[in-house]
Design brief:
With 604 residues, this protein is of the alpha/beta class. It is 33% helix and 20% strand. Among the domains are: 2-90 and 560-601, Urease, subunit C, domain 1 (Roll), CATH 2.30.40.10; 110-226, Diaminopimelate Epimerase, Chain A, domain 1 (Roll), CATH 3.10.310.70; 425-558, no CATH class. The structure holds zinc ion. Zinc ion (ZN) binds at residues 96, 98, 257, 474.
Length: 604
């Protein structure tokens, strides 16, 4: 299937060459279904060509060039879209997120995403949901921010007041902790005497030692059985709902970073939508491997996943990768650091998720099968031991076009960046998170100390080393938004609208600056050092398009606007290069084309 597609592509290029010659000779040319003209088209081709017009026939791009040249592709049935000087980009690619899982949460559970981050608002939203769904046996949801609460975290008593007799389980916005009520603790059998599980923490009341209502990392698993499971139809409905939203913010390709091998409803929902032609996104993904499977079951899980992937052969849904966590997150003190957490006096360095030998064996097996490794990497020590396993796998299997990936890349030593480059890896980064905010001041700064906290989230230096660098939202952690994405990549701060969304009324009390010369003062919301990691507009456009396609082995079909490629394109009403930064933060597509079809029309 893959080979056949490549042959078609070559054939298209030849056809395009012939057409161009025929055009010169004045022969009857091919007519387009859609023509986009009078635009500033960032083709993101290898030369960085800026064109004026694009013609599309069927799924594919048949012309890219000047406005005069596109005229001959137009006949009476061609839809001609005059962009009036606006910008056209390849469709945006988000290389790490949790789409189906998050969409189900938005549709069927308590969603604290996008609501003002304060305890009173959370309680109100949770209470409203519970009152509106009196027949539900279990209440679950997601999206609360840890930074709203003290160091012990949210308490069970807050939820007991809303629901004393039914379990209530809420996952944090970063997905690394769960807030539960007393009933959930009771059903899960978690008491004062329950020890912390390996790789996790049951938060306790400092006075009584009783579980206080927050379960971190692997302790979240203790209540996992209480979490509702969705039907395939529910997942399908959720995915269809989500893709409409995502098309409207310019996405045409996304990567599901955690496909559960043991949940057929989940992956079959994608597959059935792909086969029936209902997807308006290209979806790629990774099978989720974790130590909780038990070492005896790794091999069986890998083999099963590889077999399943063979059945996913449409251009719309494929799973060609495996996902591993190398560590967790710094804000929970579970990111794996080379030097201890500075806020602790016990030498704690965080969680190393995998045993070296087990990881090396698994990587070697998966790499040999031709699959990509997609690794959650936050701490510098997480990069180090994972790179060692990757180097051993590469040595065992010989060189191949593997494009293994680190996602997030919060802390990375120069030496390990060099090792990534040597292995020809991808870095998938999160410009959305590049900001000096209360996570920085309340969590990262005390935990990492002054030097390390100002080395977080490399971007430009990765590109300069030749590492293919794509972007991600980690949705539901962050809701995709091209204005926010471009703005934050270019300034390493978040736009004012994001602060207003997060803080509501309190936003006016936040001291915010975008000036890199502003003296760094505690509590100020401002640009995140190092400032030379800021990207240009053209760099963030390329990272959000072609680099994302390359990261997913899709550069033959999408990621740039070139003859023979699939017509995945978006348009904005303005010439982005003429906008000031505040206006960049407000950009939103007026048009999204996927596979040659208009899937979002913001003008209608
Ligand atoms: Zn993720």
């Amino acid at each position: 299937m893959k080979r056949k597609k490549r042959l078609t592509f070559v054939a298209m290029l030849l056809a395009a060459a012939v057409i161009a010659m025929a055009g010169c000779g004045g022969g009857a040319g091919e007519k387009a279904d859609i023509v986009i003209t009078n635009a500033v088209v960032h083709t993101v081709d290898p030369e960085g060509t800026i064109a004026e017009a694009v013609a599309v026939k069927g799924e594919e791009i048949i012309y890219v060039g000047d406005a005069a040249g596109v005229e001959k592709y137009i006949n009476s049935s061609t839809k001609v879209l005059d962009m009036e000087g606006g910008t056209v980009l390849p469709g945006l690619i988000d290389c790490h997120m949790h789409p189906a899982m998050s969409a189900a949460t938005y549709l069927y559970e308590i969603s604290l995403h996008g609501v003002t981050a304060d305890i009173d608002t959370y309680i109100e939203v949770i209470r409203d949901f519970v009152e509106a769904h009196p027949d539900q046996e279990v209440y679950s949801g997601a999206g609360f921010m840890r930074s709203v609460f003290d160091s012990v975290g949210p308490r069970k008593e807050m939820l007991d007041e809303i629901s004393a007799d039914k379990p209530l389980i809420l996952t944090s916005v970063d997905g690394h902790s769960r807030w539960v009520n007393s009933k959930a603790l009771e059903i899960a059998g978690i008491t004062k005497d329950t020890p912390n599980p390996e790789g996790g923490v049951i938060q306790r009341d400092p006075a009584t030692g009783e579980p206080s209502g927050l379960l971190q990392e692997s302790a979240m698993e203790l209540v996992a059985d209480l979490h509702p499971e969705y039907t395939k139809e529910e997942y399908k409905e959720a995915i269809l709902w989500l893709q409409e939203w995502f098309n409207s913010v310019g996405l045409t390709t996304i990567f599901d970073a955690m496909i559960p091998i043991d949940k057929p409803n989940y992956y079959n929902a994608y597959q059935e939508l792909a086969e029936s032609g209902q997807l308006t996104l290209r979806i790629r993904g990774a099978w989720y491997m974790n130590p909780e499977m038990g070492a005896d079951n790794y091999e069986e899980n890998v083999n099963k996943a590889i077999e399943l992937s063979k059945g996913f052969q449409t251009p719309y849904f494929q799973v060609n990768a495996f996902k591993f966590f190398a560590d967790q997150v710094i804000e929970e003190e579970t990111g794996y650091l080379a030097e201890p957490y500075q806020n602790r006096d016990d030498g704690w360095r965080g969680i190393k998720v995998w045993d070296d030998q087990e990881l090396t064996d698994l990587f070697a097996k998966i790499d040999k099968a031709g699959f990509q490794l997609h690794i959650h990497q936050i701490g510098d020590a997480a990069a180090d031991y994972t790179l060692t396993a990757l180097e051993k796998a590469a040595a065992a299997n010989g060189e191949r076009d593997s494009r293994h990936t680190f996602a997030h890349v919060q802390l990375l030593s120069d030496r390990d960046a060099e090792r990534m480059a040597a292995l020809k890896m991808n870095a998938i980064i999160a410009p959305y998170w590049m900001n000096m905010d209360d996570y920085y001041w309340d969590l990262y700064y005390p935990m990492l100390g002054k030097d390390r906290v100002n080395q977080m989230y490399p971007a430009k230096s990765l590109m300069e080393r030749g590492i293919n660098t794509g972007v991600h939202s980690d949705f539901f952690v962050t809701e995709p938004d091209p204005g926010w994405l471009f703005y934050s990549a270019m300034t390493r701060t978040v736009p004012q609208k994001v602060i207003e969304m997060g803080y509501g009324e309190l936003a006016k009390d936040i001291v915010r600056t975008t000036d890199i010369n502003f003296p760094i003062t505690e509590g100020v919301n401002g640009p995140l050092p190092p400032f030379d990691e800021r990207l240009s507009l053209d760099e963030i456009i390329k990272a959000s398009t072609w680099n994302g396609a390359y990261a997913n082995f899709m550069e033959q079909e999408t990621g740039s606007i070139e003859v023979g490629k699939k017509a995945d394109m978006i348009a904005f009403s303005d010439n982005l290069h003429q906008l000031d930064m505040e206006s960049i933060s407000e950009i939103t597509p007026i048009l999204s084309v996927f596979d040659g079809k208009i899937v979002f029309d913001g003008k209608e």
